[in-house]
Design goal:
Blueprint lengths: L6 H19 L5 E5 H7 L5 H5 L6 E4 L5 E4 L4 H11 L3 E8 L6 E6 L1
Antiparallel strand pairs: 1-5, 2-3, 4-5
Length: 110
């Protein structure tokens, strides 16, 4: 199960994503990818009760070494809404690239 993040940790993670998108926006790149795990932690689709818990419910998926990776479900709508003001001209594609647990969220220029 994924460890719960504090509200300040959530905001810090979102700032990191915004900073990375800002850096990429200054290049000629048309798209940019981040691991689903990394994005889901900062845009978790959880109830208020689940968010207050010491551990969050999450998806566990096998990786190549026989271990599992846990992360909360991704709230796609919250991510899209956040990108409208913080996304440095990027939007998110509705799908992911790659197989779990290495799936990537695809950000593309508006």
């Amino acid at each position: 199960m994924p460890k719960a993040l504090t509200p300040s940790e959530l905001q810090e993670g979102r700032r990191d994503i915004a900073e990375r998108l800002s850096q990429v926006s200054q290049t000629e790149a048309r798209e940019f990818m981040l691991p689903v795990r990394a994005v889901a932690y900062f845009f978790p689709k959880l109830t208020e009760e689940e968010q207050r818990a010491p551990v969050w419910p999450g998806a566990t998926l096998p990786n190549g070494q026989g271990h599992v990776a846990a992360f909360p479900p991704l709230d796609w709508q919250a991510l899209r809404t956040w990108l409208e003001t913080q996304g440095a001209g990027f939007k998110v594609e509705p799908n992911v690239e790659g197989d779990y647990p290495d799936a990537q969220v695809i950000f593309v220029r508006n």
